[in-house]
Amino acid sequence: MPRQCDSSSEASPAPPSAQPGGGGSSGLLDASPGPVLPRALDTLVGAHETAWADPSARHAAGRRSRALLDRAREFPAQGLGVRPDEVTFHASGDRAARSAMALLSRGRRRRPGPVVASAVEHSALLRWLRAGEVPPSLVAVSPTGAVDLAAWRDAIGAQTPFAALQSANREVGTRQPPAAARAATREHGVPLLVDARAGLGRDAVPTDFDVLVGDATSWGGPRLGVLVVRTGTRVSPHHPPSPHEGGYALDPVDVPTALAAAEAWQQTAAQQQDEGSDARALVDRIRAAAVAIDEVDVVGDPQDRLPHVCTFSVLYVDGETIVDELARRGPAVASGSACTADTLEPSHVLAAMGALTQGNVRVTLPLRAVAPDRADAVERLCGQLDEVVRECRARLLAGH
Length: 400
Known about the structure:
Protein name: Aminotransferase class V-fold PLP-dependent enzyme
Radius of gyration: 22 Å
Organism: Janibacter limosus
Helix content: 25-40%
Keywords: Aminotransferase, Transferase
């Protein structure tokens, strides 16, 4: 594994380098998630030789795994401005989010009111909240997808157990105002859970939170959830007790995966400013090409947004038809909700915004390090989009 994640020479094999852009990334404009960064992939492979043991074991191999796991924890902790002991790892971003809500719900059970969340939170988070005894209080958003702060303040009260707000929306890219949202929650002593899975590693690091959830796939790492609980936040570990991550995780941590995620964090953090500027310029190109087509609306905030996400809605044709036609020509994009794409359900995010919920096309740019041809892919998309939309509309009309 690369030396950045380990101070001992015996834990630093040097596996052969992977080639950037491998794994079939050509034309990829749907990085949700994207390919793992090459050096992180090297770390993942190499770490299986040195960090294979159970980190809770007392023998030498177990102690080595534990030391490496704690070392891996330091990198996202430093980037997030928190202590390493405030960071726990989980099997996935979804698992980290569910653990966060369960920990807060138990720790705040003396406050029996509804959890407050925006209407555009991740669908898995909303399903978990709706499955509870008290339905959540969902706060409306603007046509661009930003939470209504006046309504947010009105929804927070003395009986609110906790509030949840994404840092930015993974489907339309609109950023949320966590500083103002947290100011409102703090007035009532209510902890704020910030879901940062959409932009962590790709956008400015959130600072206004009591609990934060991230996913290493957003910064070019393997599937690994990250949960931050600031010291002093009232939470209660899983019950029955779990032996993993201080009782905060239900599953054991795969140490090589954690090391690979730490390596990816370093690589992405070092390039974030340049990467973000380049991605924003490419998304601006896509937005301009889409808005130039008749009866096509680009959704989300045009300025206060993630640099790598763009969604547009095409009237008179379904999004899957456009996605399939583009895929036949090369560019790989997505349709439907970013968090329910496998079900092809109408997007609850677009519905909450009052936008068209059919005919949606979503672009999530991969990191340049894994998709060095992404600028060419964007140009192909922009050059073909008008013709594809016209052909798909004509096909639909001919079918009638």
